Amino acid sequence: MPSKDIYFNPPEPLIKRIGRVSFSSADVAAAEDVVGEIAADMSQLIPQGVEKLRSIWDVRGGRLSPETVKGCRATAHVLAGYGSTLGYPMVTTLARSLCRFIEVSDLYHAGAAEIVDAHVAALHVVVRDKLTADGGPIGKALVDELARAVAKFRPR
């Protein structure tokens, strides 16, 4: 079977500079293989990030330290960036919520640790149960419950 070329039609100014560009179907297939390998490698970034967050949080020994807070916020920030990109938009939602909570709350106030615990536990559930997309009813319940907990914590 003859190879079909795939043509890319850039805008006219670019055509004048570089001409028409074509890729063989073999080139496209090879590129798709590489993207698939990268995606497979990256698929572990979310579980590893959540595990890192859990280990940072679990080490705290019942008390919050500036190092713990800084580590949790940095890890949650990375997770927020990876989540939607790697098919876990709930991770992005939950990690952003955790980042905002850390940034605007008095984490030494009674109850703050429980809110962080709830975020970390929710992220663990998302990864454990592979809740992709919006997570369906379970995902919605997790997000809604965390939003209520955060709202109750913040003084009006």
What would you say this structure looks like, in words?
With 156 residues, the protein is mostly helical. The chain has two domains: 5-41; 44-153, Four Helix Bundle (Hemerythrin (Met), subunit A), CATH 1.20.120. 71% of the residues lie in helices and 5% in strands. The chain is built from seven helices and two strands; from the N terminus they run E-H-E-H-H-H-H-H-H. It has helices at residues 12-18, 25-42, 45-58, 66-85, 89-104, 112-128, 136-153, and strands spanning 5-8, 21-24. Strands 1-2 form a two-stranded antiparallel ribbon. The radius of gyration is 22 Å and the shape is elongated. The mean pLDDT is 84.
In short:
By secondary structure, this protein is mostly helical. It folds into two domains: 5-41; 44-153, Four Helix Bundle (Hemerythrin (Met), subunit A).
Protein topology:
Elements: E1 5-8, H1 12-18, E2 21-24, H2 25-42, H3 45-58, H4 66-85, H5 89-104, H6 112-128, H7 136-153
Antiparallel strand pairs: 1-2
Helix pairs in contact: 3-4, 3-6, 4-5, 5-6, 5-7, 6-7
Q: Briefly, what CATH class of the largest domain?
A: Mainly Alpha
The backbone outline, from C-alpha atoms, is: elongated
Radius of gyration: 22 Å
Spell out the helices and strands N to C: EHEHHHHHH
Number of strands: 2
What's the tally of helices?
Answer: 7
Poorly predicted runs of 5 or more residues: none
In angstroms, what separates the terminal alpha carbons? 70 Å
- Largest sheet report: 2 strands, antiparallel
Main-sheet strand order equals: 1-2
Q: How much strand content do the residues show?
A: 5-15%
Mean pLDDT across the residues is 84
How many domains would you count in the coordinates? 2
The CATH level-2 architecture of the largest domain is identified as Up-down Bundle
Q: Give the class from helix and strand content and strand pairing.
A: mainly alpha
* Percent range of helical residues: over 70%
User: What is the CATH topology descriptor of the largest domain?
Assistant: Four Helix Bundle (Hemerythrin (Met), subunit A)
